[in-house]
């Protein structure tokens, strides 16, 4: 379980926001650079990374909007908050990525099957842009990982993993341009683009599945459930628990839990135990929204030694 103390809410929100803004700015910079490089080279491998960067821009903008919108407090119309906006945005993004990957795959296959080999120009300019994009991506990922370590925000964590995946087609594009310039192997460009399209499909399907599961109120990760159960069963004053239920919505985990307490204690004492347990669960899982019901522990009638 993750028991690392989270920063103050305002500080954590600012860190998450800074990671979101940085992601949008880097993605926008990469889109502009790769547009120029595509015009100079005509390389499909650069086209693939351009589309991927365009997807990054959309996803980063959606993630930033989700971070801002999901941070809004619950209101009369949204009693459980606004975090499902993250899942809706992710589901739409996954469909868009699938369509884009299909376009790239078709273009790659057409080039591979063409009689005349494709021409690639200005390999040096393209390689310079891809090299710069790799450096910018590495810098962004380093900052995102630092934010995740401090806040545990899953939106930033997912964005970081996505950018790490983007390094693969960029490195592949570099190799394709090098092979074209050094050996005239222009077909490698189409192979790299086709592989990048495949990676985009895999990522989109995973993203869409996670978003769909959250929208369908799928339970939290089993490790999280086990962690909550372990905290509850070992908590002072709690004699047992039952009906532990969880669901996810965006970056939030909603927890419903019944705990069994001494029925002879005062209401103040029972409330204090429940409130302390809630704080402990949230300390371990800062994105959890916890609702605890308090039940009197079942009384067990002692069995007489002579009975039976």
UniProtKB/TrEMBL annotation:
Matches recorded under InterPro entries: Cation_efflux, Cation_efflux_CTD, Cation_efflux_CTD_sf, Cation_efflux_TM, Cation_efflux_TMD_sf, CDF_Transporter
Single GO molecular function: zinc efflux antiporter activity
Limits of the Cation efflux protein cytoplasmic domain: 222-296
A GO CC term assigned to this protein in UniProt: plasma membrane
Topology with respect to the bilayer: Multi-pass membrane protein
Main localization (coarse): membrane
Ranges for domain Cation efflux protein transmembrane: 22-216
This protein's UniProt keywords: Cell membrane, Membrane, Transmembrane, Transmembrane helix, Transport
Listed transmembrane segments: 15-37, 43-68, 88-108, 120-143, 163-185, 191-208
Entry's localization field: Membrane
Pfam families: Cation_efflux, ZT_dimer
Gene Ontology biological process terms from the UniProt entry: intracellular zinc ion homeostasis
PANTHER family assigned: CATION-EFFLUX PUMP FIEF, MITOCHONDRIAL METAL TRANSPORTER 1-RELATED
Similarity-based family: Belongs to the cation diffusion facilitator (CDF) transporter (TC 2.A.4) family.
Name under which the protein is recorded: Cation diffusion facilitator family transporter
Organism: Rubellimicrobium rubrum
């Amino acid at each position: 379980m993750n028991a690392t103390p989270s920063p103050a809410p305002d500080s954590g929100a600012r860190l998450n926001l800074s990671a979101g803004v940085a992601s949008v700015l880097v993605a926008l910079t990469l889109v502009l650079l790769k547009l120029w490089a595509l015009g100079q080279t005509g390389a499909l491998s650069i086209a693939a990374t351009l589309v991927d960067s365009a997807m990054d821009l959309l996803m980063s903008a959606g993630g930033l909007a989700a971070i801002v919108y999901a941070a809004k407090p619950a209101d009369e119309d949204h009693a459980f908050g606004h975090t499902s906006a993250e899942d809706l945005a992710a589901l739409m993004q996954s469909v868009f990525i699938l369509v884009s990957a299909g376009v790239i795959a078709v273009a790659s296959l057409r080039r591979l099957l063409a009689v005349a080999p494709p021409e690639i120009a200005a390999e040096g300019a393209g390689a310079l842009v891809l090299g710069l994009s790799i450096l910018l991506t590495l810098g962004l990922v380093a900052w995102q990982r630092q934010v995740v370590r401090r806040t545990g925000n899953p939106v930033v964590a997912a964005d970081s993993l996505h950018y790490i995946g983007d390094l693969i087609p960029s490195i592949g594009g570099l190799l394709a341009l090098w092979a074209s310039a050094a050996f005239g192997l222009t077909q490698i460009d189409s192979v790299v683009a086709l592989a990048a399209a495949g990676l985009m499909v895999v990522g989109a399907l995973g993203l869409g599945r996670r978003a769909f599961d959250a929208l369908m109120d799928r339970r939290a990760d089993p490790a999280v459930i086990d962690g909550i159960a372990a905290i509850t069963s070992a908590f002072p004053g709690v004699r047992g628990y039952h009906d532990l239920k969880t669901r996810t919505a965006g970056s939030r985990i909603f927890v419903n839990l019944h705990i069994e307490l001494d029925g002879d204690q005062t209401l103040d004492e029972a409330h204090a135990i429940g409130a302390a347990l809630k704080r402990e669960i949230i300390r371990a899982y800062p994105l959890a929204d916890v609702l605890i019901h308090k039940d009197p522990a079942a009384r067990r009638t002692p069995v007489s030694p002579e009975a039976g």
